[in-house]
Amino acid sequence: MFDTTIYIGRFEPVHNGHMALLQRALDSARSVIVVMGSAWQARSPKNPFTCDERANMMLAALTAADRARVQVLPMRDYYNEALWVQAVRKGVARIAAADARIGLVGHFKDATSSYLSAFPGWELIHVERQGRIDATAIRDAYFGATPGTVRAALNDLAAQMPASTLDFLERFAQTTDYPALQQEWRMLRGYREAWAAAPYPPVFVTVDAVLRCQNQVLLIRRAHAPGKGLRAVPGGFIEQRETVWQSCLRELAEETHCELPEARMRAALQSVAVFDHPDRSQRGRTITHAHYFDLGDAPFPAVRADDDAMQVEWVAVEKLAAMEEEFFEDHFHMLDHFLVLTTPP
């Protein structure tokens, strides 16, 4: 018997396979910590539900006695396994006793389960896969429905979900977030279908520009799916005859009309970082080269929205940490990398 068991997942949404592993965690220890991933991500077809919504789905499916033994630990996606592991350990240490015997519940599904090997000192409680359902199949059926046909669309999968999940999904389909997510889901499905016949899955290369001036950062709101309306740094796909440097300056100019002389931009360049986590983009494997510029205390360059930007604005660096849930993909973490917005784990 363990003092505490850990169960890590995204639970987008909660299904019976999740609940079976949670029950194993409850059967193996006096208390359970559920590490809820993607905790401050903006809504997207892959991460449609907030941490609180997912926690409520899960806890509502338990008895009152079992609910009292479960604590939910929200965890951001760091897109960096080493940082993420540190953050999980630190979060667990705040809850569990210092001398607690800890078990980690899970099963090796595929490459995304490699994190189960990243916690030496926690004994792995291996559980075989429970059922054949996964959250992706539920999301696909759900977003392919209409507000009035959700229950029918999920009929074949209903037996694989607790009542709390089904009830939540029906209620959520009546909100304005549901059709917006459906639009994103259809766009991404078409995007992937367009290159599905390629002999190998493509790897896309993009660029991003983090431009700082007077301790403010230039941000856009995306005009189109994916991520329509979300905040982002200016950027886009590299073109065939460009270097990443040339592409970065072009995308910055196209989206914001910030067209400072190249020599000025080179003088302002502080660093370049590659963001290449396999899950950073839902469009497919996408590697970006982010360029960080600092114009110091110089006057703000003139900017206006154009191309893929519906809005462009300067935002004070000290305000960015509170806006984490408003950012597209990993753009908040990109800013965090250059500007240190969060406390390192």
UniProtKB/TrEMBL annotation:
InterPro entries, per the entry: Cyt_trans-like, NUDIX_hydrolase-like_dom_sf, NUDIX_hydrolase_dom, Rossmann-like_a/b/a_fold
SUPFAM superfamilies reported in the protein's UniProt record: Nucleotidylyl transferase, Nudix
Keywords: Hydrolase, Nucleotidyltransferase, Transferase
Domain called Nudix hydrolase: residue spans: 202-338
Gene3D superfamilies (UniProt xref): HUPs (3.40.50.620), Nucleoside Triphosphate Pyrophosphohydrolase (3.90.79.10)
Domain of life: Bacteria
Protein name (database record): Bifunctional NMN adenylyltransferase/nudix hydrolase
